[in-house]
Design goal:
The structure is a single chain. This protein is an alpha/beta fold. The chain has a single domain, classed as Rossmann fold. It has 11 helices and 8 strands. An 8-stranded mixed sheet has the order 1-8-7-2-6-3-5-4, sandwiched between helices. α11 links the parallel β7 and β8. The longest helix is centred in the N-terminal third of the chain and has 16 residues. The chain is globular, with a radius of gyration of 16 Å. The two termini are about 30 Å apart.
Length: about 220
């Protein structure tokens, strides 16, 4: 089965606007995110697939901003959503939402705090956020533990859907490590920037890592 292609248009100024799904819910951009959301719901209609990794081939594809807006769009539909920032090298989710990052994923994985203590509950629908956290460790070593799978097993019993923002799959190993622990992987591609060869290589790497590529969001400028 070929991956579904979720086209995302008019993203030229999305980084400047950040949470357009929150500030302009009736805009064309917000409508495009609702289309993406509907496609993902199609994949989860049997409620078996709940955890999705959002990654890209390399930096600068707009992945984190797209993931944040998609999470908001889902939460606005009364779904209980958890957005996890697993980009431990260059975390940005907390800056997009303007929330603290004093505790988060790293603190939970090192068992310094519980998941309940680390999750930030927003006032955006049913959206919760688990930021990257304050502790700086080797990301690959930290994310390649059984604790990650234990955490995801716990999370799926609490949330309707989980989105994980991760580093680019070609540049950092940790995205490959997490990919096979998720129900699906969505690849963000910048049509004007991403080379076809890199897209093919990203799919090959995900296949080797036993990550299930279910679709791509094409960021068209």
């Amino acid at each position: 089965m070929k991956p579904l292609i979720f086209k995302k248009r008019e993203l030229k100024n999305l980084k400047k606007r950040n949470l357009v799904t929150l500030s302009h819910p009736d805009s064309i951009l917000s409508d495009q995110f609702r289309t993406i959301r509907a496609n993902i719901y199609f994949l989860t209609e049997e409620r078996k697939n709940k955890v999705f990794l959002i990654t890209s081939t390399e930096k600068g594809e707009g992945k984190s901003t797209i993931t944040a807006n998609l999470a908001v769009s889902m939460a606005q539909q009364k779904e209980k959503v958890l957005l996890i920032d697993a980009n431990l090298r260059e975390a940005v989710i907390h800056t997009i939402f303007k929330i603290p990052n004093s505790i988060g994923l790293t603190n939970v994985l090192t068992k310094q705090v519980s998941l309940e203590e680390a999750v930030f509950r927003t006032d955006i629908g049913n959206l919760d956020i688990l930021t990257s956290g304050s502790i700086s460790y080797n990301p690959v070593e930290l994310l390649a533990t059984e604790i990650v799978q234990e955490l995801l097993n716990k999370i799926v019993n609490v949330y309707d859907i989980v989105l994980i923002d991760s580093p680019s799959v070609l540049e950092f190993t940790e995205s490959r490590v997490i990919a096979n622990q998720c129900d699906g992987v969505v690849l963000v591609i910048n049509r004007g920037k991403t080379e076809l060869e890199k897209t093919i290589e990203a799919k090959r790497i995900l296949d080797i890592a036993h990550g299930k590529l279910v679709g791509a969001i094409i960021n068209e400028k």
